[in-house]
């Protein structure tokens, strides 16, 4: 399997003929990237020009670099850069700067955890950057130009401050957002920061379902040499968590004329179309196909979209064999690194599908 495979919606005739694009009504999907220091997250890259980006970055220098990146965006996307920090309410605070600027947070680093696990990037520099905080709901309300349906997909990476930002975006989450991509922590890297369980609980109260982790990063004291002792376990450190507003689970979306409306006509159909595309970007193709089945779209359009979605994750067995042969070749070249090479190979696929529910007669250990 090739985990680097990226399928992009290239607006070819096959995609144009699907109802999912027609449902967008020429209004781009509004992707909000909160904590966008190094540019818009590539999780929505497959959507190309179907998406517009609103990027938030409170650091003045980083925001200037973002604007430069936006001007030369190879995808030609509309990008708005907001030099602003978000939170639950109006206020001002100090951004605690760290050795790696990307690890800076509105919470002070927790020295007990930072030193225990040698998280050097989160070591404080002693400097604080004064910033102004506003709630996302207020920012979007003041946005005059409706250039996109802002907030349909939101990504957050704010070093422990995600829950406060979500609480300041409650109206947007209730009415507009269908998918979230959030960095969450399991270790209190920063003092007083909420952890994954608190973020999940809050979003569940708003009707979002936790679907899984895009990737999970583990941590230990590194007292064990994993090259020679690879079968130990480590504790979760942080992970990008994925949440969807699942209409099947919530049973709250309908397509009747009495359905609640917002600023867009056919709101529920549009939201479901955006949700299908978000599931496509995040790799949840099975969920996208579930959603496709509940939409009142013509059979030929559904079949065309089904094929496009499945093609995005197709893998020829010969390519899998070739990749495994490459792994074995590397192991033979460096046998002392065999455990490390296998571990790195497994890391590439750790967050993909579980195959334990499929019986394979050629596998030496039968699934439970």
From TrEMBL:
GO molecular function: O-methyltransferase activity
GO biological process, one term: methylation
Segments crossing the lipid bilayer: 273-297
Keywords: Membrane, Methyltransferase, Transferase, Transmembrane, Transmembrane helix
One Pfam family of this chain: Methyltransf_21
All residue ranges annotated as the Methyltransferase FkbM domain in the record: 33-210
Source organism, top-level taxon: Bacteria
InterPro entries: FkbM_Methyltransferase (IPR053188), FkbM_mtfrase (IPR006342), SAM-dependent_MTases_sf (IPR029063)
Protein name: Methyltransferase, FkbM family
The organism of origin for this protein: Maridesulfovibrio ferrireducens
